[in-house]
């Protein structure tokens, strides 16, 4: 009964890809937790990745600025990782980056995406890591999830920095920019 409801909800949300991605993730979680074949859950997760990447591609196309190539290179750098996990050419852009950024610089190109996008992508790749049959595939998916979490935090820090800067300008005070760690060891102590 719940499976049917989730499938109908996903079908009804054809016009809203972001909401549909959320339902596909929920559907994949349900399939995984209820013991359905892993390939079914993986397929739903990859469909959600496609929807999220299409949203990113659409917003880059709408922007039409010179930074579009830079934004696209951030998400297309590790297609070899994904091709080892699943050989599906339609998912080639949904990978970890070849280059990274620091603090608000990394988030500057991500302004068309929200923290929700990155949170959903992180969830997807953590789930794919849990389903992965090999240690290498698990590691690859966890690294991709880590990358999207880092982008999520960079965007959040950049937004907080902009708000603090605007507040400092209003009160004619000094503003020290916030920064998010870029390396795993920087998050600890």
Automatic annotation (TrEMBL):
Transmembrane segments: none annotated. PANTHER family: CILIA- AND FLAGELLA-ASSOCIATED PROTEIN 46. This is KIF-binding protein. Signal peptide: none annotated. Residues 79-97 have a biased composition (Low complexity). Residues 79-107, 167-189 are annotated as: Disordered. GO terms for biological process: axoneme assembly; cilium movement involved in cell motility.
């Amino acid at each position: 009964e719940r499976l049917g409801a989730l499938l109908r909800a996903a079908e009804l949300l054809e016009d809203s890809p972001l909401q549909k991605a959320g339902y596909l993730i929920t559907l994949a979680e349900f399939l995984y937790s209820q013991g359905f074949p892993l390939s079914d859950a993986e397929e739903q997760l990859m469909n959600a990745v496609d929807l999220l990447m299409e949203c990113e591609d659409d917003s880059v196309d709408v922007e039409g600025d010179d930074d579009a190539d830079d934004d696209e290179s951030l998400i297309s750098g590790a297609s070899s990782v994904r091709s080892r996990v699943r050989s599906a050419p339609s998912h080639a852009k949904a990978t970890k980056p070849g280059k990274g950024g620091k603090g608000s610089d990394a988030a500057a190109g991500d302004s068309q995406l929200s923290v929700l996008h990155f949170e959903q992508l992180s969830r997807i790749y953590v789930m794919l890591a849990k389903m992965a049959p090999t240690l290498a595939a698990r590691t690859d998916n966890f690294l991709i999830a880590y990358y999207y979490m880092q982008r999520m935090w960079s965007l959040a820090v950049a937004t907080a920095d902009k708000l603090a800067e605007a507040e400092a300008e209003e009160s004619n005070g000094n503003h020290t920019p916030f920064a998010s760690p870029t390396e795993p060891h920087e998050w600890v102590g």
